[in-house]
Amino acid sequence: MNTHVLTLERGRSWSIVLGILLLFTGFLAIVVPFFAAIATSIFFGWLVLLGAVAHLSYAWFEREVGAILWQVLIGLVYLIAAVSLLLWPVAGVFTLTLVLSLYIAMEGVFELVLYSRLRKLPGTTWFLVDGFVSLLLAVLIFIQWPSSSLWALGTLVGLSLIFSGVARLTLPASRRLL
């Protein structure tokens, strides 16, 4: 076998392993959504902390006082948000769930606007369906907030992990057919 074929086979194997791990973690997140939401809050806190470090570090390379001050202020806002998420991840879950409902609502509105602009094209009905489903989900999360924090964030992260896992598993299968 040449090295190209070995590399493809190794890539397929790792894609399958990753797909199985993503499916497992996705189902686990759906089974215990609040714990998955806490893990998401902590993970997001670390990402925001990295953003704080980046802004504060970048301030050293700025030349103008206004630009330095701006980067330091942004870095401090990031730092406060990160520390809050890391020290109080449950409160972070409640906040992130509220932000998630607003995001889903905005996405639903944009999908409906897109549908209204493209409705004469074939297949655009899915934009209409997506818009209404997104708005319905956002309303359900928002109306039930803060209790929706117990299931919404973790369940949606779990579904995302499951779809990523399925994509990783179907990719090697589709390559074999080619």
The profile of the biggest β sheet is: none
Instruction: Report the strand count.
Output: 0
The percent range for helix content is: over 70%
Shape: globular
What structural category do the secondary elements indicate? Answer: mainly alpha
Measured between the Cα atoms of the first and last residue, the distance is 18 Å
Q: Overall pLDDT, averaged?
A: 86
Spell out the helices and strands N to C: HHHHHH
Rg on CA atoms, Å: 21 Å
Count of helix runs:
6
Low-confidence stretches: none
Strand content: under 5%
Which SSEs are present, and which pair or pack?
Blueprint: H1 3-31, H2 33-59, H3 65-87, H4 89-118, H5 125-143, H6 152-177
Helix pairs in contact: 1-2, 1-6, 2-3, 2-4, 2-6, 3-4, 4-5
Describe the structure.
The structure is a single chain. This protein has 178 residues and is an all-alpha fold. It has a domain at 89-145. The protein has helices at 3-31, 33-59, 65-87, 89-118, 125-143, 152-177. The longest helix is centred in the middle third of the chain and has 30 residues, at 89-118.
Task: Give me a quick take on this structure.
This protein has 178 residues and is an all-alpha fold. 87% of the residues lie in helices and 0% in strands.
